[in-house]
Write a structure and sequence with these properties.
The complex is a heterodimer. Chain A is α/β, with parallel strands linked by helices. Helices cover 52% and strands 13% of the residues of chain A. Chain A folds into 2 domains: 52 residues, no CATH class; 202 residues, MTH777-like (Rossmann fold, 3-Layer(aba) Sandwich), CATH 3.40.50. In chain A, strand 2, helix 4 and strand 3 form a beta-alpha-beta unit. Chain B has a domain of 79 residues. The mean pLDDT of chain B is 89. The chains are: A alpha/beta, B mainly alpha. Chains A and B meet through helix 1, helix 4, helix 5, helix 8 and helix 9 of A and helix 2, helix 4, helix 5 and helix 6 of B.
C-alpha cells in the first residue's frame, strides 16, 4: 500500500466517476435474458390489470433504485395497468409516492382511478400476510387519508386474488418476504432489485417462486432499451463500466505488487 | 408463575397460528387477521422503545461530554422531523419533505456511495491470489465484473455466458445450501420456543 497511497486510489475513482457522469453519454447495452423475461411478462398482462408496486427500499439506494423504479412505473402506465403503491419501509413511503405521482402525470393518469398510494404499514411480514386476507383491513385509508371504500379503483379489490402481480422494488431482502409469505396466496412476485441483491434471489427465480427479476443499474438500462427510452440507467452505465474497469485494474495492480514482493521474499 | 404465563401465551399462539394455516374456515381467517393486526400494533410500540432508548443514550453521552456536537445534531434531527410533520404535514412543498429530500436522502446516499471508495481501496490491498481458493474467487469476481460492464471487448458473448454459469451453478448452489440451513434452523428454533424448550427470550436461564 506504500506504493500507491489510499488517497490516490480514492481520487482516481472520484475523478473517473465525476468525468464519466459529466459526459452524460447514454451507453447502448445488450439486453440479458433476465430483463427480457421481466419485460415479456409485464407486456403479456392484459390492459387494466391491477398490480401492487411495493417500494421496499431506503433513501440510501435511491441513485440505483430510482432508474429501476421509473422504468417499472413507465411500462406499467404505458400498459394502462391499475397500480396500487405500498411501502414496507418508512423511508420508501415518501419516495414511492413522489415517483408514482410524477410518472402518473407524464401519462395523464388520475389518482383514485388509475393509481392509488396506500403507504406504509409496520412489520412487513404481518402486512404482507394481512393483505392476503384483506387489503381494506390492512389499509382502511390510503396515504392521503381517503377511505378505502371511497376510492373508485379499489371498489373491486379485496385481496391478492384480485391482483395480477406484485413488483417489489427493493434494496435489501424484503422481496424474500413477498416470495415466502405473499407466495402462499399464489400471487406472482416480480423483483426489481439492486445489483448486490441479485444473487440472493437467483434460487427463487430458478424455482419459479419469483416470476421475473431485473437487477441494478444495468437492469434498468436494459429495461429502458426495451421500452425505447433513455433514462438514468443508460446514462449511468458509462460511469459504472468505468468504475468496474478501475476496480479490475486495481486488483491486477495489487496482485502484481503482491507477487513481486513475494518473489523478493518481503511482506506484501 | 411469572414465567409460566408467557410460556402458555407463547404456546397457545404458536399452536393457533400453526393450525389456522391449514384451515380456510371463516373463524380461522378472522382469527388470523386479528392476530396480524395485533402483530403490527405491537411492532409499532417497539418503535417507541427505540426512540426512548435513542434519547436516553444520547442524553447520557451529552452529559458526559462525549462527541457532544454530533449527538446534539442527531437529537435535534429526531425531534424536529416529527414536529415538522405534525405542524405542516408531509405534503410535497412542506418543510418535512424539503428536509427529507434535501438533507436525509442525499446524506444517506452519500454514506452508501462511500462504499465504492472502500471497495476500490480494499480491492487493491486485500483481493490477492494468496491460495488456490482465493485465486478462484478472484477469477470469478473479475469475470462477473467484466460481464456487467459495457465494454466493447472480444468474446463478450462468451464472457456473459460464463458469468451466467457462475451465477446459476456455483453461486446458486452455495446460496441454496445456506437457505435450506436457515430454513431448518428457523423451524427447529420455532419449535423449541413454542414448546417451551428454548426460554432465553424470557430473559432468564435456559
Amino acid at each position: 500500500m506504500q506504493i500507491l497511497p489510499r488517497h490516490y486510489v480514492f481520487l482516481g475513482l472520484f475523478l473517473l466517476i465525476g468525468i464519466t457522469m459529466a459526459l452524460d453519454i447514454s451507453v447502448d447495452v445488450k439486453v440479458s435474458p433476465y430483463t427480457k423475461k421481466m419485460h415479456a411478462y409485464i407486456d403479456s398482462l392484459p390492459e387494466g390489470s391491477t398490480l401492487i408496486i411495493s417500494f421496499d427500499h431506503e433513501a440510501s439506494s435511491l441513485p440505483e433504485i430510482r432508474p429501476i423504479a421509473l422504468a417499472m412505473l413507465r411500462h406499467s402506465f404505458q400498459k394502462n395497468f391499475k397500480l396500487i403503491g405500498v411501502s414496507l419501509y418508512p423511508e420508501g413511503t415518501l419516495i414511492g409516492y413522489r415517483l408514482m405521482k410524477n410518472i402518473a402525470k407524464e401519462y395523464d393518469k388520475t389518482y383514485g382511478d388509475d393509481f392509488v398510494y396506500l403507504g406504509f404499514r409496520p412489520q412487513y411480514i404481518a402486512a404482507i400476510l394481512a393483505m392476503g386476507e384483506s387489503i381494506e383491513s390492512t389499509y382502511p385509508q390510503d396515504y392521503l387519508g381517503n377511505d378505502y371504500n371511497s376510492i373508485p379503483m379499489l371498489s373491486n379489490i379485496q385481496n391478492y386474488d384480485d391482483i395480477e402481480a406484485v413488483i417489489s422494488i427493493a434494496d435489501g431482502s424484503l422481496t424474500t418476504h413477498w416470495i415466502e409469505y405473499g407466495g402462499q396466496f399464489n400471487i406472482k412476485i416480480l423483483g426489481a432489485v439492486t445489483a448486490a441483491m441479485v444473487t440472493t434471489y437467483d434460487p427463487y427465480l430458478s424455482s419459479n417462486q419469483m416470476t421475473a427479476m431485473i437487477g441494478g443499474l444495468r437492469g434498468a438500462a436494459e429495461y429502458e432499451k426495451l421500452l425505447g427510452m433513455k433514462g438514468g440507467g443508460s446514462r449511468g452505465m458509462l460511469a459504472q463500466s468505468a468504475a468496474h474497469l478501475y476496480i479490475i485494474f486495481l486488483v491486477i495492480l495489487g496482485n502484481i505488487f503482491y507477487f513481486r514482493s513475494r518473489k523478493k521474499g518481503g511482506k506484501s | 408463575m411469572n414465567r409460566q404465563i408467557p410460556l402458555i401465551v407463547c404456546f397457545s399462539f404458536g399452536l393457533v397460528m400453526f393450525l389456522q394455516y391449514f384451515s380456510n374456515h371463516t373463524i380461522s381467517r378472522s382469527v388470523n387477521l386479528a392476530i396480524l393486526d395485533y402483530w403490527q400494533i405491537i411492532f409499532a410500540f417497539t418503535l417507541i422503545i427505540g426512540v426512548v432508548s435513542f434519547i436516553k443514550v444520547n442524553l447520557t453521552k451529552i452529559s458526559r461530554r462525549i462527541d457532544r456536537p454530533y449527538l446534539i445534531v442527531g437529537l435535534l434531527g429526531m425531534i424536529s422531523m416529527p414536529f415538522m410533520a405534525l405542524i405542516w404535514g408531509i405534503k410535497a412543498d412542506s418543510p418535512f419533505m424539503w428536509m427529507f429530500e434535501n438533507v436525509q436522502a442525499p446524506m444517506a446516499s452519500t454514506v452508501f456511495a462511500l462504499l465504492a471508495f472502500f471497495v476500490a481501496s480494499a480491492s487493491f490491498r486485500g483481493f490477492r491470489a494468496r491460495s488456490l481458493q482465493a485465486s478462484i474467487l478472484l477469477g470469478a469476481a473479475l469475470i462477473i465484473l467484466l460481464s456487467r460492464s459495457n465494454l466493447p471487448l472480444p468474446y463478450t458473448e462468451h464472457l456473459s455466458e460464463l458469468a451466467d454459469w457462475i451465477r446459476n451453478y456455483p453461486s446458486m448452489t452455495a446460496r441454496r445450501a445456506i437457505l435450506i440451513g436457515i430454513g431448518l434452523g428457523s423451524l427447529t428454533t420455532s419449535l423449541r420456543v413454542i414448546l417451551g424448550i428454548e426460554r432465553t427470550w424470557l430473559g432468564g436461564e435456559r
